[in-house]
Protein backbone atom coordinates (compact mmCIF):
# COMPACT_ATOMS: atom_id res chain seq x y z
CA UNK A 1 0.00 0.00 0.00
CA UNK A 2 2.83 2.40 0.88
CA UNK A 3 4.62 1.55 -2.35
CA UNK A 4 1.44 2.16 -4.39
CA UNK A 5 1.10 5.58 -2.76
CA UNK A 6 4.77 6.38 -3.47
CA UNK A 7 4.37 5.29 -7.11
CA UNK A 8 1.21 7.34 -7.69
CA UNK A 9 2.80 10.47 -6.22
CA UNK A 10 5.98 10.23 -8.27
CA UNK A 11 7.24 13.32 -10.10
CA UNK A 12 9.01 13.67 -13.42
CA UNK A 13 12.79 13.25 -12.90
CA UNK A 14 15.06 16.21 -13.67
CA UNK A 15 17.30 13.92 -15.73
CA UNK A 16 16.17 11.06 -17.95
CA UNK A 17 12.56 10.41 -18.86
CA UNK A 18 11.73 7.02 -17.39
CA UNK A 19 9.66 7.75 -14.31
CA UNK A 20 10.96 6.69 -10.88
CA UNK A 21 7.61 4.93 -10.42
CA UNK A 22 8.40 2.67 -13.38
CA UNK A 23 11.81 1.81 -11.92
CA UNK A 24 10.31 1.13 -8.47
CA UNK A 25 7.67 -1.16 -9.99
CA UNK A 26 10.35 -3.09 -11.90
CA UNK A 27 12.55 -3.38 -8.80
CA UNK A 28 9.69 -4.77 -6.72
CA UNK A 29 8.57 -7.26 -9.38
CA UNK A 30 12.15 -8.49 -10.00
CA UNK A 31 12.89 -8.82 -6.27
CA UNK A 32 9.58 -10.46 -5.32
CA UNK A 33 9.70 -12.95 -8.20
CA UNK A 34 13.18 -13.96 -7.10
CA UNK A 35 12.26 -14.22 -3.41
CA UNK A 36 8.85 -15.87 -3.68
CA UNK A 37 9.01 -17.90 -6.90
CA UNK A 38 8.54 -21.17 -4.93
CA UNK A 39 6.09 -19.74 -2.37
CA UNK A 40 2.73 -21.44 -1.75
CA UNK A 41 0.69 -18.23 -1.70
CA UNK A 42 1.27 -17.20 -5.31
CA UNK A 43 -2.18 -15.61 -5.45
CA UNK A 44 -1.18 -12.96 -2.88
CA UNK A 45 1.86 -12.00 -4.95
CA UNK A 46 -0.24 -11.78 -8.11
CA UNK A 47 -2.65 -9.42 -6.35
CA UNK A 48 0.28 -7.23 -5.25
CA UNK A 49 1.71 -7.16 -8.80
CA UNK A 50 -1.64 -6.17 -10.29
CA UNK A 51 -2.22 -3.46 -7.71
CA UNK A 52 1.23 -2.00 -8.32
CA UNK A 53 0.77 -2.23 -12.10
CA UNK A 54 -2.46 -0.21 -11.78
CA UNK A 55 -0.58 2.39 -9.73
CA UNK A 56 2.29 2.71 -12.18
CA UNK A 57 -0.08 3.03 -15.16
CA UNK A 58 -1.95 5.71 -13.21
CA UNK A 59 1.30 7.60 -12.52
CA UNK A 60 2.15 7.63 -16.25
CA UNK A 61 -1.38 8.73 -17.20
CA UNK A 62 -1.15 11.66 -14.79
CA UNK A 63 1.72 13.06 -16.87
CA UNK A 64 -0.77 14.35 -19.42
CA UNK A 65 -1.63 17.18 -17.05
CA UNK A 66 1.91 17.66 -15.74
CA UNK A 67 4.02 20.66 -16.76
CA UNK A 68 6.50 18.86 -18.99
CA UNK A 69 9.28 20.63 -20.85
CA UNK A 70 9.19 17.98 -23.57
CA UNK A 71 6.37 16.47 -25.62
CA UNK A 72 3.92 14.63 -23.33
CA UNK A 73 3.07 11.94 -25.89
CA UNK A 74 6.77 11.19 -26.35
CA UNK A 75 7.34 10.73 -22.59
CA UNK A 76 4.23 8.56 -22.18
CA UNK A 77 5.21 6.51 -25.25
CA UNK A 78 8.70 5.90 -23.82
CA UNK A 79 7.45 4.88 -20.37
CA UNK A 80 4.78 2.49 -21.67
CA UNK A 81 7.30 1.06 -24.14
CA UNK A 82 9.77 0.53 -21.26
CA UNK A 83 7.14 -1.34 -19.21
CA UNK A 84 6.10 -3.43 -22.21
CA UNK A 85 9.71 -4.53 -22.83
CA UNK A 86 10.13 -5.35 -19.12
CA UNK A 87 6.94 -7.45 -19.00
CA UNK A 88 7.90 -9.27 -22.22
CA UNK A 89 11.17 -10.20 -20.55
CA UNK A 90 9.60 -11.33 -17.23
CA UNK A 91 6.73 -13.43 -18.67
CA UNK A 92 4.52 -13.15 -15.57
CA UNK A 93 1.14 -14.73 -16.27
CA UNK A 94 -0.98 -12.40 -14.11
CA UNK A 95 0.50 -9.35 -15.90
CA UNK A 96 -0.19 -10.52 -19.48
CA UNK A 97 -3.19 -8.18 -19.81
CA UNK A 98 -1.06 -5.29 -18.51
CA UNK A 99 1.63 -6.14 -21.05
CA UNK A 100 -0.95 -5.92 -23.87
CA UNK A 101 -2.32 -2.67 -22.43
CA UNK A 102 1.21 -1.19 -22.26
CA UNK A 103 1.73 -2.08 -25.94
CA UNK A 104 -1.59 -0.52 -26.89
CA UNK A 105 -0.82 2.66 -24.91
CA UNK A 106 2.68 3.18 -26.32
CA UNK A 107 1.30 2.58 -29.84
CA UNK A 108 -1.46 5.17 -29.25
CA UNK A 109 0.98 7.80 -27.99
CA UNK A 110 3.46 7.06 -30.79
CA UNK A 111 0.66 7.63 -33.32
CA UNK A 112 -0.22 10.97 -31.68
CA UNK A 113 3.45 11.97 -31.55
CA UNK A 114 3.99 11.05 -35.21
CA UNK A 115 0.82 12.83 -36.38
CA UNK A 116 1.68 15.99 -34.43
CA UNK A 117 5.17 16.27 -35.90
CA UNK A 118 4.45 15.00 -39.38
CA UNK A 119 2.16 17.84 -40.37
CA UNK A 120 5.14 20.19 -40.31
CA UNK A 121 7.23 19.10 -43.36
CA UNK A 122 4.18 19.54 -45.65
CA UNK A 123 2.19 21.94 -43.51
CA UNK A 124 0.71 24.11 -46.30
CA UNK A 125 -0.17 21.08 -48.42
CA UNK A 126 -1.84 19.50 -45.40
CA UNK A 127 -3.81 22.66 -44.75
CA UNK A 128 -4.87 22.94 -48.41
CA UNK A 129 -6.10 19.36 -48.70
CA UNK A 130 -7.86 19.49 -45.33
CA UNK A 131 -9.86 22.35 -46.86
CA UNK A 132 -10.57 20.29 -49.98
CA UNK A 133 -11.82 17.36 -47.86
CA UNK A 134 -13.98 19.73 -45.81
CA UNK A 135 -15.66 21.07 -48.97
CA UNK A 136 -16.40 17.54 -50.19
CA UNK A 137 -17.75 16.60 -46.75
CA UNK A 138 -20.06 19.64 -46.94
CA UNK A 139 -21.57 18.28 -50.17
CA UNK A 140 -19.52 20.01 -52.89
CA UNK A 141 -19.05 17.64 -55.84
CA UNK A 142 -15.42 16.55 -56.26
CA UNK A 143 -15.23 17.86 -59.84
CA UNK A 144 -16.50 21.27 -58.67
CA UNK A 145 -14.01 21.84 -55.82
CA UNK A 146 -11.52 23.55 -58.17
CA UNK A 147 -14.13 26.23 -59.00
CA UNK A 148 -13.90 27.51 -55.41
CA UNK A 149 -11.40 30.37 -55.42
CA UNK A 150 -9.38 29.20 -52.39
CA UNK A 151 -9.07 25.69 -53.89
CA UNK A 152 -8.60 26.52 -57.56
CA UNK A 153 -6.04 24.79 -59.78
CA UNK A 154 -3.92 27.94 -59.64
CA UNK A 155 -3.92 27.93 -55.81
CA UNK A 156 -3.01 24.23 -55.73
CA UNK A 157 -0.09 24.83 -58.11
CA UNK A 158 1.12 27.68 -55.85
CA UNK A 159 1.10 25.40 -52.79
CA UNK A 160 2.81 22.53 -54.64
CA UNK A 161 5.55 24.89 -55.85
CA UNK A 162 6.49 25.49 -52.21
CA UNK A 163 7.52 21.82 -51.89
CA UNK A 164 10.20 20.90 -54.44
CA UNK A 165 11.71 17.45 -53.77
CA UNK A 166 15.02 18.77 -52.39
CA UNK A 167 13.17 20.95 -49.86
CA UNK A 168 11.03 18.01 -48.73
CA UNK A 169 14.17 15.91 -48.21
CA UNK A 170 15.77 18.75 -46.25
CA UNK A 171 12.65 19.09 -44.07
CA UNK A 172 12.73 15.34 -43.35
CA UNK A 173 16.42 15.55 -42.40
CA UNK A 174 15.61 18.35 -39.93
CA UNK A 175 12.71 16.29 -38.56
CA UNK A 176 14.98 13.26 -38.09
CA UNK A 177 17.56 15.31 -36.19
CA UNK A 178 14.82 16.77 -34.01
CA UNK A 179 13.42 13.33 -33.13
CA UNK A 180 16.95 12.01 -32.53
CA UNK A 181 17.64 14.90 -30.17
CA UNK A 182 14.50 14.49 -28.05
CA UNK A 183 14.00 10.71 -27.89
CA UNK A 184 15.96 9.18 -25.03
CA UNK A 185 18.77 7.00 -26.36
CA UNK A 186 18.38 4.18 -23.80
CA UNK A 187 14.95 3.13 -25.08
CA UNK A 188 16.20 2.76 -28.69
CA UNK A 189 12.81 3.90 -30.01
CA UNK A 190 14.24 6.02 -32.84
CA UNK A 191 14.05 3.27 -35.55
CA UNK A 192 10.47 2.41 -34.47
CA UNK A 193 9.30 6.05 -34.48
CA UNK A 194 11.12 6.87 -37.73
CA UNK A 195 9.49 3.89 -39.47
CA UNK A 196 6.08 5.05 -38.19
CA UNK A 197 6.88 8.53 -39.55
CA UNK A 198 7.70 7.02 -42.94
CA UNK A 199 4.45 5.02 -43.03
CA UNK A 200 2.37 8.07 -42.11
CA UNK A 201 4.18 10.24 -44.68
CA UNK A 202 3.48 7.64 -47.39
CA UNK A 203 -0.19 7.51 -46.32
CA UNK A 204 -0.45 11.31 -46.59
CA UNK A 205 1.28 11.35 -49.98
CA UNK A 206 -1.14 8.74 -51.36
CA UNK A 207 -4.08 10.68 -49.98
CA UNK A 208 -2.88 13.90 -51.66
CA UNK A 209 -2.37 12.09 -54.97
CA UNK A 210 -5.83 10.56 -54.73
CA UNK A 211 -7.45 13.95 -54.04
CA UNK A 212 -5.62 15.50 -57.01
CA UNK A 213 -6.88 12.69 -59.27
CA UNK A 214 -10.46 13.01 -58.01
CA UNK A 215 -10.84 16.78 -57.68
CA UNK A 216 -8.38 18.06 -60.32
CA UNK A 217 -8.72 15.33 -62.96
CA UNK A 218 -7.10 16.13 -66.30
CA UNK A 219 -5.32 19.22 -64.94
CA UNK A 220 -1.86 17.69 -65.27
CA UNK A 221 -1.07 18.88 -61.74
CA UNK A 222 1.34 16.64 -59.83
CA UNK A 223 3.65 16.99 -56.86
CA UNK A 224 7.31 17.68 -57.58
CA UNK A 225 8.45 14.38 -56.03
CA UNK A 226 7.26 10.81 -56.67
CA UNK A 227 6.67 7.93 -54.26
CA UNK A 228 10.05 6.47 -55.35
CA UNK A 229 11.71 9.81 -54.50
CA UNK A 230 10.03 9.82 -51.10
CA UNK A 231 11.21 6.28 -50.27
CA UNK A 232 14.75 7.21 -51.37
CA UNK A 233 14.70 10.28 -49.06
CA UNK A 234 13.80 8.14 -46.04
CA UNK A 235 16.27 5.43 -47.02
CA UNK A 236 19.19 7.84 -47.44
CA UNK A 237 18.44 9.59 -44.11
CA UNK A 238 18.27 6.22 -42.31
CA UNK A 239 21.54 4.98 -43.88
CA UNK A 240 23.46 8.20 -43.26
CA UNK A 241 22.60 8.24 -39.55
Structure commentary:
- By secondary structure, this protein is mostly helical.
- The chain has ten helices and no strands.
- The relative contact order is 0.09.
- Helix 2 (20-36) packs antiparallel against helix 3, helix 5 crosses helix 9 and helix 6 (123-137) packs across helix 9 (190-215).
- Helix content is 69%, strand content 0%.
- It folds into two domains: 2-110, no CATH class; 120-240, no CATH class.
Please name the defining characteristics of this protein.
single chain, 241 residues, mainly alpha, Sec3_C, phosphatidylinositol-4,5-bisphosphate binding, EXOC1 protein
Low-confidence stretches: none
Q: What kind of sheet is the major sheet?
A: none
Radius of gyration of CA atoms, rounded to a whole number: 23 Å
Element order: H for helix, E for strand? HHHHHHHHHH
For the record, the count of structural domains works out to 2
Kindly, what is the distance between the CA atoms of the first and last residues, rounded to a whole number of angstroms? Answer: 46 Å
GO molecular function: phosphatidylinositol-4,5-bisphosphate binding
InterPro entries: Sec3_C
Protein name: EXOC1 protein
Domain Exocyst complex component Sec3 C-terminal: 4-218
Short recap of the structure:
With 241 residues, the protein is mostly helical. It contains ten helices and no strands. This is EXOC1 protein.
Give the secondary structure arrangement, pairings included.
Blueprint: H1 2-8, H2 20-36, H3 42-61, H4 72-90, H5 96-118, H6 123-137, H7 153-161, H8 165-182, H9 190-215, H10 227-239
GO molecular function: phosphatidylinositol-4,5-bisphosphate binding
InterPro entries: Sec3_C (IPR048628)
Domain Exocyst complex component Sec3 C-terminal: 4-218
